[in-house]
Amino acid sequence: MAAIAATSAPPSFLGTRRGKLTLVLLCAVGFIDLLDASIVNIALPEIRTHLGFSVQSLQWVASGYLLTYGGFLLLGGRSADLLGRRRLLVAGTSLFGISSLVCGLAGSEGVLIGGRLVQGAGAAMMTPAALSILTTSFHTRGDRVKALGAWGGVGALSGAAGVVFGGVLTSEVSWRWVFFVNLPVVAVILAASFRLVDAERPKAPPLRDFDTVGAGLITSGMLLLVYVLVNAPSVGWGTARTLGELAGALALVVLFVFNEQRHSNPLVPLSLFKIKGLWEADVTQILAMAGFYTMFFLVTLYMQEVLHYSAIDAGLCYLPVTVGAAVGAGVATNAIPKIGTRPLIVAGALLGAAGVFLLSRVPVDGTYLPDLLPGIVIMGAGVGLVLVGVQNAANGGVPADKAGLAASLITASFQLGGALGLAIFVSLATGRTNHLLATHTQPSEALTLGFQRGLLGASFALVIAAVIALRAPNVRVADMAPDADDNQAPPVPVASGSTREAPHFSAG
User: pTM (2 decimals)?
Assistant: First the structure.
């Protein structure tokens, strides 16, 4: 009688020790990149005092990083696909570490701002490289959902952790340590990259076939767009300069799209946007991050300028956010296999909107427990759900040869959302405050009413994000990992009279 040979499911790379360590390594890259955007903000008053920054130039300590990070992301992500992901990860991390050292040692405005510009360029290389390594290393659908859930959870934690660490380091040591703290982490990442990540030798197109024009157009367009968003609050949204720069950025993007349609080897193949849920996730994250990032910025100012909290006290007030974000990320990771990404993103955006709306009602004489804590915790749970959901929706179904590009798109939406939120909602807050000060309103009351208006706008952005997510495709586990091993048909059982080699499954 014939005996049937048993077949086994493909092995889990995440179930191995090397797989776990690889995930920790990649999440550390994402954490340090996103942390740097928030950890520096809380140190800005000390930086201004020690280095003699003007109010106008001080903004470039934060904006310089955002400018080059957002501007070079698409080029960095595509370069990872074409030149090798580990190569870009190591190069970007090295650049990030060297520039962190320069920033920490800076003795003048120009050196610090220049270091921040270089630091953003390094981050634009290492973040999409790390995320694309994650999506290509964890082959099976179950592994990919868990790995992307961890990455999204780390993104949710990084903003709150940056404020906490920034407050502690600035108050207890020195503002310079918000940069020096990167150095040991960078050293560990570099050492672990060579031990855990295999080197690639992708077949890059000849230089004459590389989309040099497309790379120049999209990088210039992104740089100009972020620059406009950063400067618009101080220059004015209705000025000829701002409108002209916006028109220039739009023209560069249109020319880029036209070039991609005609080029034989485009930098960004437009077919990428046909992947289920990808562009909807990117747009949703832009609006969601506009709301979340603005909340951190305005509430921190409220605690320091109105309630007169110290830097370390303001930072520690965000510890409950880390708890809420961790809970939200864990719930989302476990729920995606059952219900898909859409319900989680919608629920997270609405929770975030509710939390930010509660914070928009803070009074002049507010206290932490009744006026800040409920909104902070609710918002934290929302950000965990949203970021895990959009990471899975945007990266889960991307083929391996486009992983770096997709990673750069979702990371760019994170950065653009933060810049857009600060440009619009901080302008709302500042305009309201200035109007009230002109009518001789008390400064603390004018500041609070301005913060209320900015936070209310941020809550509306999160509601719009929920509406867009509600109309987006629901990405399920079956839509993920199109080149995964568990997509392959199982071998046909054969009789014992003949033998066949057991199927081999890559462990990533």
Answer: 0.82
